[in-house]
Amino acid sequence: MEILFSDFFQRALAGGLLIGITAPLIGVFLVLRRLSMIGDTLAHVTIAGVALGFLTGFYPLGAGLIFAVAASFAIEKLRKAYKSYAELSIAIIMSGGVALASLFFTLGKGYNADVMSYLFGSIYTLDNMDLIVVGLVTIAVVVVVTLFFKEFFLLSFEEDAASVSGLPVKLLNMLITILTALVISTAIKIVGSLLVSALLTIPVAISLLLSRSFKSSVILSVIIAEIAVVGGLVVAGIWNLAPGATIVLLLIALLALTLIGKKGLPA
Amino acid sequence: MKPGSLDCHQHMIEIEDLSFSYGEQKVISGLNYTVKERDFLGIIGSNGAGKTTLLKMIVGLLPASSGEIRLFGEPVRKFKDWERLGYVPQKNAFNPLFPATVREVVLSGLYNNKNLIRRVSKAQQQQCDDALEVMRIQDIAEKRVGQLSGGQQQRVFLARALINHPDLLILDEPTVGIDAETQAGFFDLIMHMHAHHHMTFLMVSHDIDMIKNYLGHEPVQSNGKINFYCRHSHEAQDCVEENLQHTLV
């Protein structure tokens, strides 16, 4: 239990609490627009950036962040080129990210243990610099989502209606994709790139079963994510497990309980 | 409608030498048409005739291959006064599992380029209440839209389109997937609005009987497989009053 009071665990907890706000806040717009896979794609690209960071000595999270933002622009560009096959852009960028990551992995030998923490998450790796970056990203996400909440709502509910209302649909789409890139690249140090999209989608999946209004589903997603992050980090800390795994398994357990509970409820 | 905001018979939509092709296939060719204030234009055509394509070009969702569309005298690509236009999309345009209440959806009719970032004011909340009341859906304001019947959902989307008191209302196949009785009720409602509130309507539909019944049996123009039926609100008022007389006798 001592581990829970250690500096590195407190840092991981602080970072986790911030990511527990940002991930579902962006995830709700991705899920409702059926773009859940963008999370996975950007996570894979981020890992390529992190690997390059290790290879060149550049701050890995910063390199991952730059890669993720560049990939988000590329996805938007490809989505325009393949209008009727929007999922193609996701497949192309995802495979490009994995290819680059494996290239950088093989070029740089001897840092596999560090890379593992980016794949599955770790409570030991978050330093003060990382915490500052997570804090800045959280401020950016909360401010932008608060400012454009009603516009993002209409965009997610019905994109054509948003266009016919004269909303800057392209700009709003781009904002959501960039924010997604920022959230993912900062979350992977705790949750890991292979599991980060679960933190964006599963809290939203649970809240969709329970909420009647859009506002309540956003608030509930954040509460669920926070429960999973805190619970998952504590379990990971006590039994020395990868926090990505414990957080995601806790989310899946919550989802299963909700589904069972919903079935038991009268229609 | 905003009082005094329109000149008599103002041109609401002007379509000039409009053409559209999907690859080699020409869907619309050299179309010219003007929708004037208080007209009710019905656009009829079979599946694939190009009626939804035409509507998407009119609201700026799709660029024309050639020609021009003007809304209230302004080329659609430069048009900014979107609050003057209400839009009711096809019923299947939204995800029925989306967690949104009736109030949230109706209120979204106010989210436009002129209200960007601004918070919803008390006056706008009142506008929403008024729109809910006009459509008689105030009792279901806090219900999730996806759980409503097709007819109720159409009233929600109509309330959203009307919340800004638009001068022009555009409806894209508003009765698809709705039972015959509810369809008739919906048509009665919008015909009444046309006759008594002097709004201009453009409706895309596949329901030729319903359109002919209200807009007359002969199309005013045809282009390829698309037919245009039109009625002016003076005639509409006569028609509605005539029907009323018959009912009273």
From TrEMBL, chain A:
**Which segment of the chain is annotated as a signal peptide?**
none
**UniProt GO cellular component terms:** ATP-binding cassette (ABC) transporter complex
Statement: the UniProt record of this protein carries the keyword Transport: yes
Looking at the record's lineage, which domain of life comes first? Bacteria
| Protein topology in the membrane | Multi-pass membrane protein
What is the recorded name of this protein? Zinc ABC transporter permease
Query: Is NADP a UniProt keyword of this protein?
Result: no
Q: Which Pfam families match?
A: ABC-3
From TrEMBL, chain B:
Q: So what family is this one in?
A: Belongs to the ABC transporter superfamily.
Could you tell me which PROSITE patterns the record lists for this protein? ABC_TRANSPORTER_1 (PS00211), ABC_TRANSPORTER_2 (PS50893)
Q: Which gene name does the record give? A: zurA
**Residues covered by the ABC transporter domain:** 13-248
InterPro entries reported in the protein's UniProt record: AAA+_ATPase (IPR003593), ABC_transporter-like_ATP-bd (IPR003439), ABC_transporter-like_CS (IPR017871), Metal_Ion_Import_ABC (IPR050153), P-loop_NTPase (IPR027417)
Q: Which organism is it from?
A: Paenibacillus albidus
Name of this chain's protein: Zinc uptake system ATP-binding protein ZurA
Question: Do the record's keywords include ATP-binding?
Answer: yes
| UniProt KW keywords | ATP-binding, Nucleotide-binding, Transport
Q: Which GO terms describe its molecular function?
A: ATP binding; ATP hydrolysis activity
Q: Which Pfam families match?
A: ABC_tran
